[in-house]
Request: fold
Amino acid sequence: MSIKQKIIKIAKEAKDASRILPGVSAEVKNKTLISMADSLVKNARSLIRANKKDLYEAKKQGAISAFLDRLALNEKRIARMSESLKAIAALPDPVGKVIRSTRRPNGLLIKKVRVPIGVIAIVYEARPGVTSDCIGLCLKSGNAVILRAGKEAINSNLAIFKVLRRSLVKYKLPEAAVNLLKVTDRKAVDCLLGLKGFIDLVIPRGGESLVRLVEKKSRVPVIKHYKGICHIYVDSEANLSLARKVAFNAKCQRPGVCNAMETLLVHQGVAGTFLPVMIKDLQAAGVEIRGDMRVRKIAETVKKAKEKDWSTEYLDLILSVKVVSGLGGAIEHINRYGSGHSDAIITENRAKAMEFLNKVDSACVYVNASTRFTDGYEFGLGAEMGISTDKLHARGPMALEELTTYKYEIFGRGQVRT
Amino acid sequence: MSIKQKIIKIAKEAKDASRILPGVSAEVKNKTLISMADSLVKNARSLIRANKKDLYEAKKQGAISAFLDRLALNEKRIARMSESLKAIAALPDPVGKVIRSTRRPNGLLIKKVRVPIGVIAIVYEARPGVTSDCIGLCLKSGNAVILRAGKEAINSNLAIFKVLRRSLVKYKLPEAAVNLLKVTDRKAVDCLLGLKGFIDLVIPRGGESLVRLVEKKSRVPVIKHYKGICHIYVDSEANLSLARKVAFNAKCQRPGVCNAMETLLVHQGVAGTFLPVMIKDLQAAGVEIRGDMRVRKIAETVKKAKEKDWSTEYLDLILSVKVVSGLGGAIEHINRYGSGHSDAIITENRAKAMEFLNKVDSACVYVNASTRFTDGYEFGLGAEMGISTDKLHARGPMALEELTTYKYEIFGRGQVRT
Reply:
């Protein structure tokens, strides 16, 4: 069989499995998840052994230490993966939830009911923890899953996958509900993206270039997250000490993630008092500041921001800063250069806060809080599958409910249309 | 300006308008809708005059009478368009509805709030009534709209559009909230489909070839409806007189629509008693029956169904009929050949009904009722924008709520992440 034929076979079997999963009870799914969680811990040694192969290869290729660190499995990390599966088991089952129920005048009972999406393909790069999270979330939401992981962690991922799949057999669930492609090259991705009819949704997880490639080539619907260009706007009526604390947190607490601030916008009325202290704080923490002309008049040490800076996701200790003439200018800047992820206003003026909430076209819009809270766990959704910057189907943190769709179930007694 | 430049200009202005619409109150939107409704009636004469041009052109091109009938405007039809706008005004405003609200342990208040999608492009074929319906639904749901109508009704559509746009001015709403392209050729469609960033959603309405073209070319997300291959499965435990009535209704009441039955599946245990009477009823109503071998053994007058028949949407007085060995076979047939639109089981056995509901992967699944009820109005949703056979974002009848997305509004008092 060619690679293509193999992948089509896997997708067909996943589709068949996806017909069975909607009818599986929460109890059986939860038992399976807990069995998976226990198996990970029991098999920690063999997982770590498989991971050593990946680490050896990566070192041979000259990978940097940050990469090796993300790739490495140890007992603590395996325990965390295991806990995450147990947390998913503890979450309510979204499948079968009645969203709306109507009795029509003709007696028809119409129920809008949450159901799984079907078969979900996940295309991601190295990081073994993603494998068990995705398997857990898809199983709980009743979806069959096809994982296509990167080659860097393939030995670790295959080992995790094999351990988890055994729990499916134990609880008589179809094995084809969970799949991991052994083939890691781009051809496998191309093939998956063409399998409309077998695969219902593709979720790419990884760098922007991977996501753009998937979106461009896919014939299957994609939910994605390009990048997080998050803004904080400090209004003329802001509590400036609160602004200082929140902006510092949004930039410095973990600069390498998508919900960290990349651009600070400051109202011209407070720029003169606010920026000198704020910039000093940030520079002391090692942040490089790139400002527009008005910022540089206030703080001479600041580098000049280029046009490109406003649309750059640094994921690093770099921040672009701009003075705006008011709320309107801030909103315009955010809608123009932002990525629709997370943006905040710092103000004590309720009307301005409401205008900001209304007009900023982003998944998560904050008043007086750090953008760093955009996260499934912080939002109280339990686990998450990533954060969507799309507007359709799922927006912001994607959790179990976002991995479902709905169908209408209509109960009659022979009603006909006249 | 080239056509492309003109369309980009319209899309940019629509995007700007879409920033204002989320903040417009239900009261202002409803007043505008009622003003639109009244204006249509007041301007009936000039609308009918514009329509005469389209009718003249269509006749010159040799259009068939069914087409001319769909194209024609008269006072009664204008009154119906007007009533539909008033009905939309009477529906609850989906915008601003709080879907979920959580107070987190750290004091953050997180609200999941319904918001408009943004700019919606609608690509459709001739039928002037669609114009006012789409404008009304998009306005009420807070979306800016760009209509690209077919050339056959362009004079009628432009006249309707001009009348409706005046009401926007009257209530100080941005005119660019509602747009109709004067250019009707395919180039205009191609251009719209590439305007990612300005247009948030494309809804094609029309024949399968138009829909497939839009889907193939679009860089903007599309919600669509390919076709309705609807099934009725008559189980061995069906009430056969109920089955006879429901199946007859699903095929014959209006055969040219997407929720009409195209294939009848009958359990082998009742085929011998049920099919002779059912086929007689249908043939008496002028229905051509195409059956598989087992059907033809029971009813000799039946034509042979080809493989292609099982996936054909006849939209006509033609029906394919198959005998299946049981519930499993029926479900398999539907999931294989169906279009995920509307499918029904006729049975008195509750367990079988539940299995059918669970396993048939369609937008609307019926027990003991005609598939003809799949319709926004019949479902109690008021007006509708069409029926989605997609699984993401919107499935089944698309009404006001389906024209919205959500955002998270987060209210803090200086919370930072630790």
